[in-house]
Amino acid sequence: MEALLKPRTIRRVLKDWETFAHPHQRTPDGDWTTWLLLGGRGAGKTRAGAEWVKRLARRAPGQGPIALIGETEHDAREVMVEGVSGLLAAHEPGERPTWIPSRRRLEWGNGAVAQVFSAEDPESLRGPQFAAAWCDELAKWRYAEASFDMLQFGLRLGERPRQVITTTPRPIALIKRLVADPKTAVTRAATVTNARHLAPAFLDAVVGRYAGTRLGRQELDGEIVDERADALWSRGLIESCRIENAPPLRRIVVAVDPPASSNASADSCGLVAAGCTEDGTIVVIADETAGGLTPGGWSRRAVALWRRLSADALVVEVNQGGEMVRAVIGDADASVPVVAVRAHKGKWLRAEPVAHLYEQGRVKHAGAFAALEDEMCDFGLNGLSQGRSPDRLDAMVWAVTALSFGAKAEPRIRSL
Fold first, then answer.
1. Mean pLDDT, to the nearest integer, of 23-27?
2. Which of 139, 231, 256, 317 supports an S-S bond with 170, CB 3.0-4.6 Å?
């Protein structure tokens, strides 16, 4: 096929955006007003925004000005206009718009115009009117609410004013509202999605180091990593307790918080393992919580983890059918030592002493446990914000409690 194509045609195909763009970089279908592209660092957000503006300028030159809004005027110029993935780079040399820095203005040969604004100056958006807008890194804007509001009043030209927002997310109120807005089309992408355009050393060093952490989930995976003000744990506290690998452990337990039923809609089976070092530091080493399991299914899963870690015991909550719990674990492996625990206090009261151990630096996380840490940072006096059962959290609390406040077993030093 290549031999049948002229060199000029091959070059055009290789540079065709629609051919090589990732799915998250393509304009969404549907009747949306805002396209919110949430992505990690290097995921191709800027190029997607530049290509959207480029296509808009080509197809509808007479529709009205396009607003280009960056965190600062410097950012807008250096990233959105002159950057390696910006508007000038997105055009072929003979097609590029004219950049007039003194006027902060881009002019295409067909009459289309784009104007640069700084989110540092919301009042600069009071008065101008636009047919479209590209907002870059909105989650970092100092005056995000004020600048965004002023822009909405100015988006009033043409038949269908639209805006694209390209940003690495932060859990700010504006981003949350946009995600919830039915007129917002949301696309997401992690850094690794665009790996072929990134340095291998960056992927090995940065992605390898931060994967799964709060910072990594936000900056690499493009997730909105939230926490409640009244939660027992904070993201910062958990990060301060994170270690890369578990040290030698003298005792290991696997804690199980069984579901009350085996229906598909039932709670998950909390399944968390933790160990204790010689100096008494507790280390969370595994979270294998799973939903939709029958009693036989979760008991086999728990026993498999107990075997893999050479754990001392299964710590199992028996509030929901103690004899049944012992029976199903016995069916999986009758030799497993089971430590039955019964909840006499509410979840908050059981979790509070464990949270204090975290604050004292006496509990560590060996690696990242994203789903467990989400529950920890969303657990307030009234439970989780969505009303779900904190199954992972319950299992972690039982494991840490058994190692901190429970009876001691004969020590066995082992490394994971």
1. 82
2. 139
